[in-house]
Amino acid sequence: MKKFLFVLFALCFCGTLAFASQPVAEDAHVNRVKIRLFSNVKIEALYVSFDLGLYDLYANDTMLLDSNLGEGISVELKPSTSGVYLSVNGYEYGTYKNVVLKATDTACIMCLNPKNVKQRTYEGDLIVSAFDKANLKIINDVAFETYLAGVVQSEIYGNQSDIFRIQAVISRTWSLRNMSKHKSDGYNFCDYVHCQAYQNRCVRPDIILGTMQSAGETIVGDDGKLIETPFHSNSGGQTANSEDVWRAALPYLRSVSDTFSYHMRQSEWVKVIKKDQWLNYFSKTHKLNIQNDSVRNTLLTFAQPERKAKILGVPLTRVRTDFKLKSTFFTVTTDEKTGDVVLNGRGYGHGVGLSQEGTIRMVSLGISYDSIIRHYYTGAHIHRDESVSETYVQNFVTEITKIIEEDKANPGQKKSKKDDWLGKLFRVRDRQDREEEFDPAKQEMESDWKVEW
Predict the structure, then answer these.
(1) Beta-strand (E) ranges in 321-418?
(2) What is the mean pLDDT of the chain?
(3) Which of 71, 327, 426, 431 is most open to solvent, judged by the fewest CB atoms within 10 Å of its CB?
(4) CA distance 56 to 104
(5) DSSP string, 139-167
(6) C-beta separation of 426 from 7 below 8 A
(7) pLDDT digits (tens, 9 = 90+) for 166-186
(8) In this structure, are residues 329 and 304 in contact, taking their beta carbons and an 8 Å threshold?
(9) Which position has the higher pLDDT, 402 or 281?
C-alpha cells in the first residue's frame, strides 16, 4: 500500500450542529477519508488533467492503465443512464459503473475541470460514478490530515500559523465526531458548508505548518469526550448560547463577550427593508397583531444591547433565514426620510462557538492558541494524542519553516513542478520514512522525487 502526505499523523461548520453524532475514542486514528466534491452543483461533465505524479486508471475495479496518466494526459468523464462514460486523450473506453484514478506515489496532484464550474486541484484518489444521466458523483479519497489542511485553507483567512493551528484543531475535532455523517451515501463528508468547506488542495505552506503543529490535538469536555466545535465568521462582539440557535444547551457553548471581533471585515452590516414588508411578515407568518401599538413599536424599535434569542416570541434564527440576514444580532430603526426599516447588524454567522475573525485578532495580539480555544469553548480542554511522535512532527515543522523562509528570501522566483513546496515536502518525508539522511543535492534527481513503494 502506498503512503500519502499526512498519514504520518496517523501515528499520530460550518453546517448544522450534529448533536446526535457519537463521539469517537479520544485517541482514535483515521488515516483516510472520502469527501464528495462539487456536492452543491450538478456535474454534467468532468475533465481531469494532471499536474504532478502518475495515476493508475481503474474501471469497474479492473485496471485499464498502469501508471500512464500524468502530465499531458486528459481524462473525460460524463454521466449516462448506464454509468460513467470514459475517454482518455480522445480515445473512447466505454461506459462503466465507476471509474477510479489512483495516485501511484506520494507527490500526485490532479486538476478537476467540471463543465461550467471553476477548476480545482486535489491530492489523493478520485472515485467517479453517476447519480443519473445528468449528474456525476465525484469522491476524493485522501489522507485525513491532507483533507484538514484543505478545509483550513477554505474556511479561514490570515497569515499567522496559530490561526491555522486553531482552525485545524476545531476542524479535526468536528470531523472525528461526525465521521459517519454521510455513511449511507458512501462517503464521510461533503465539500460544502453542510459539513466543512473543502474547495481545493492546500497550496500554502504556512497553512500546512499550522495544521502540522496541531497534529494529534482535539478538543474535549470535562468527561474527556470530543465536543461539538461550531464556528462562525464574526460574533459581532458576543457569541450565542447553543440553545438560542439550536435545541440543546451545551455547557461548553456559552455566550461570552468577544470584543476581539470588533472592527474586522464582517463586524457590521446594514439591511434596509420596506416597513410594510417587515410588519406584514410578522403579521402573516407569525400571526402577531401589528395593529397593537405595543407590538408595532417593539417591531420598529427592537434593540439588542446583548444577544437575544427572540423578538416577541419569534425566534431570531427564523427571521435571519427568511430575510437572508448575516446574523441574528441586530437592532431595528426607521429611516425618517423614507420610512423604511433599517436593520443595523453585528457579526456574520450563527454566533455559536468560535469567532474566526475574533481568533485572527487574538492571535495578532499574541494570545496563545490554547487560551483562544478555551475562550470560545467554555471549560473545554485540548487533548493531545500521546501516540503522535513529537519528534517526527517537529522534523516536518522544521522543514516547512525552511521552505517558507526560502520563499520569503526569493520572492517571485519561478519554480518547476518538482520544486513546488509540496514536492519538496514529499521528498523530505520519503527520506525520513526510509531513515535516510536528507541531502538537498538529491532534490534534482528524478529517482529521488518519484518514489516507488
Answers:
(1) 330-334, 341-346, 354-355, 381-384
(2) 87
(3) 71
(4) 7
(5) EEEEEHHHHHHHHHHHH---SSHHHHHHH
(6) no
(7) 999 999 999 999 999 999 999
(8) yes
(9) 281
Output the pLDDT for position 446. 35
Q: What is the pLDDT of residue 402?
A: 84
- Give the start-to-end residue ranges of the domains of the chain: 268-346
Strand order in the sheet with 32-37: 62-69, 55-59, 99-103, 125-132, 135-143, 32-37, 189-190
Question: Residue 308: how many CB atoms within 10 A of its CB?
Answer: 14
Q: What cell numbers appear for 450 in the block?
A: 518519484
Q: Which residues contact 409 (CB under 8 A, 6 or more apart)?
A: none
Helix, strand or coil, per DSSP, at residue 46? strand
CA-based nearest residue to 233, from 202, 209, 266? 266
Q: What is d(CA 298, CA 296) in angstroms, rounded to the nearest whole number?
A: 5
Cα 328 to Cα 342, 345, 367, 376, distances in angstroms = 14, 8, 28, 18
Tell me how far apart the alpha carbons of residues 149 and 425 are, in angstroms, rounded to a whole number: 14
Torsion angle defined by CA atoms of residues 64, 67, 71 and 74, in that order, rounded to the nearest 10 degrees: 10
pLDDT in tens, 328-375: 999 999 999 999 999 999 999 999 999 999 999 999 999 999 999 999
Question: CA–CA separation, 435 vs 440, rounded Å?
Answer: 15
Taking only the tens place, the pLDDT of each residue in 125-141 is 999 999 999 999 999 99
Residue 36's pLDDT band (cuts 50, 70, 90)? very high
- Which residues lie closer than 8 Å to 173 by C-beta, 6 or more apart? 218, 219, 226, 227, 229
E strands, 134-258, are: 135-143, 189-190, 217-220, 231-232
* Range 234-239 average pLDDT: 98
| Spatial separation of the C-alpha atoms in residues 90 and 87, rounded to whole Å | 6
Q: Answer yes or no: are the C-beta atoms of 217 and 384 closer than 8 Å.
A: yes
Q: How many CB atoms lie within 10 A of CB 401?
A: 14
Kindly give, in sequence order, each residue whose CB lies less than 8 Å from that of residue 361, ignoring residues fewer than 6 positions away: 260, 261, 264
Distance CA(140)–CA(353), nearest Å, equals 29
Question: Do residues 218 and 172 make contact, with C-beta atoms less than 8 angstroms apart?
Answer: yes
Q: What is the largest CA-CA distance in the chain?
A: 82
Amino acid at 348: Y
Q: What is the pLDDT of residue 424?
A: 65
Section 201-213 average pLDDT? 90
